[in-house]
Amino acid sequence: MSASIVFSCVVDHHPRFTRQAILWVSSLLTLANQNRESLLVHLTSDCGVEVRKIFQHLGVETQEVTSFDARHPASNKLQQLESTALAAADYVVLCDCDLTFCEDISGCITGENMRAKIVDIANLSVDHWRRIFLTAGLPLPPVSARSSFDNAETVPSYCNGGLLVLPQRVFGQLRHVWPRWNRWLLDRPQLLDPFTFFTDQISLALSVAELSLSIDHLTLEYNFPTHLPYNVDQKPVCPPKVLHYHDHVDSNGLLLPTGLTVVDAQINKINKLIQTSIL
């Protein structure tokens, strides 16, 4: 019997996030070989009834969640940890809305460990990480990883939060620990300054340390950031299966090119989907 997988995202109250989530749904159904029953969209309580109707029309289940903390809207994604529907799945794939899927990624949803891509840009220095872990009373992990874009040294648990593949065992372990560390950091903004925007990712790194979790790092093709200034001579090893486009779109909502041929071919695939769907 095959493992049950649920892809999940959180939509905040803004038309931009609704548009992103519609594309997220459409790409998973059309290009990533998923069915509607494997998707779950969480809507913050300030989303109107019209937003809910959009996803009902798409045949996708929605659940309402409250905001996590007004100090850090990006942490709303942690509210997925309370979802009873996700607690019943063998694997949970937590996603940001600004992801779009070009291929089926079922092949990477396997194993006993959490899977995620290392961050694009390291941001925090090793000394900064040392201060955070010392204040948290946790041992600093070996600084044995390098960020995927600027190739700077960082801790291996500092991962991009746009796509997290969590076996149910890990999902259950993170349910209480990750929110606790996230609030702990929100209460100490000076500890992260000037990188408080990344509170959810840094708190995940602390959670991984407390729980002694192992991470199997995903390659760039499973979470490819299209918004960064690439040198056109750079060539990814494989065409991206998942694009993380952030706000790198034009006035019509089409994804902007990167200048990298193999990436832009996948962007063109997504833009055709946008132009031929209800988006």
Features:
7 helices; seven-stranded mixed sheet; three-stranded mixed sheet; alpha/beta
Provide structural commentary.
There is one protein chain. With 279 residues, this protein is α/β, with parallel strands linked by helices. The protein has a domain of 164 residues. It is 32% helix and 19% strand. The strands form 3 sheets. It has a 7-stranded mixed sheet with strand order 3-2-1-4-9-6-10, sandwiched between helices. A hairpin with a 6-residue loop joins strand 7 and strand 8. The radius of gyration is 18 Å and the shape is globular.
Helix residue percentage: 25-40%
The topology string of helices and strands comes to EHEHEEEEHEEEHHHEEEH
Order of strands in the sheet with most strands? 3-2-1-4-9-6-10
Question: Major sheet, described briefly?
Answer: 7 strands, mixed
Number of helices: 7
> Residue ranges: pLDDT <50 for 5 or more in a row?
none
Shape assignment: globular
Arithmetic mean of pLDDT: 95
Number of strands: 12
What's the Cα radius of gyration? Answer: 18 Å
- What's the N-to-C terminus distance? 35 Å
- Structural class determined from secondary elements: alpha/beta
Strand content: 15-25%
How is the topology of this model organized?
Layout: E1 5-11, H1 15-30, E2 39-44, H2 49-57, E3 61-65, E4 91-95, E5 99-101, E6 114-118, H3 126-136, E7 145-146, E8 153-154, E9 159-167, H4 168-186, H5 189-192, H6 199-211, E10 215-217, E11 224-225, E12 242-244, H7 261-276
Helix pairs in contact: 4-6
